[in-house]
Design goal:
Blueprint lengths: L4 E4 L5 E6 L5 E8 L13 H8 L10 H7 L3 E6 L4 E8 L3 H13 L5 H20 L6 H9 L14 H5 L3 H11 L5 E7 L3 H12 L22 E7 L5 E7 L8 H12 L5 H9 L5 E6 L7 E7 L6 H16 L5 H17 L4 H14 L8 H6 L3 H11 L5 E8 L3
Parallel strand pairs: 2-6, 7-11
Antiparallel strand pairs: 1-2, 3-5, 3-6, 4-5, 8-10, 8-11, 9-10
Helix pairs in contact: 1-4, 3-8, 9-15, 11-15
Length: 413
Amino acid sequence: MINYDKFTLENGLRVIVYKDKSTPMVAFNILYDVGARDENPDRTGFAHLFEHLMFGGSKNIKNYDTVLQKAGGENNAFTNNDHTNYYITVPKQNLETAFYLESDRMLELAFSKKSLDLQRNVVSEEFRQRYFNQPYGDVSLFLRPLAYKVHPYQWSTIGKEISHITGASLKDVKEFFYKHYAPNNAVLVIAGDVETSAMEKLCKKWFGDIPPRNVPSRQIPQEPIQTEKRTQILERDVPANAIYMAYHMCGRKDNDYFAADLISDLLSNGRSSFFNRTLIKEKKLFPEVEAYIQGSLDPGLFMINAKLFDTTSFDTAESEIKNELNRIIQGDFSARDLDKVKNKSLSTQLFSKIGVLNIAMELAYYEWLGDASMINDIEEKILSVKKEDIVRVASELFRDGNLSCIYYKSKKK
């Protein structure tokens, strides 16, 4: 059981305090309710660009990293399609430095042309390196718009294309900042050897005067139900053929989310998984094949990716993968198989709650998702999934009409 205290400032900033006296370090995690799904379709990649811009100087602090390093702290951040998360770990005696840094960034960035030019170049180079300069790197740039036709999940966090980043102006980024970076659009978690009363005073001191902002209400179009299989062939200079299969699934808050997660584990988590046991070891069709879920807030994708041996055709690859999916649909797995993946999932949950930084990020995530108390319900939800739930969800998921598939063909073959 994770126990915590929670309060909200007058400007709307939600604050959670988790006490752990066993460590001299304090985790300071702030989650903003903004991700790639909040972007203009003609100006994509801004949420990720902002992750970089937030380290380029704020109103009163020219060099964020220098100040933090002098205080003995470390930091990082990540962005996805749904939200953006920034985190700091710092010695307890220098905790107020974290308040100073993060409140100044929330108040106002420096918004200099120099910083924007630098970060545009950094993100553009990251785009090239990750998507164009490594084998199979560009698959998501094609698979997402194949699977999604109206929902903004149709583009990756990095954006649709480099021009959206290189063309970003100071006016564009200022508008994005003041729409989404606000106390009433954020969750702050402080975890470590701290007292709630002292943290409340520090929060009021450093964040209390930041005014709430007019955060726009979301008008995100919901993706229509897919009724026909969609396919695309890509031919690239890669070492082997590959297949990428995406099935639409429920969103993170749906009751069936945990069943879908366990299905992915039955298929590819561990040596005894269906894919590993049958497709890799027994039939030797693939050097690697994996199944996973994206975990997105809105209805997401159940992904199956595989590299093919030269002797395996695309038709054989897809057919044999579907045979394993049909085994799930037909209930061709034992109670022991299900218990095994449940135990693995419970272990993952346990490890996610080790260390103040992990707990801080988890608390922020669940508060953003609906309520921080959900952090204590996950194990029960995993254990409550029954075999009939697995069969029912698999039957709904693994329909040809619900499939978007990319055949990634090697020019060498």
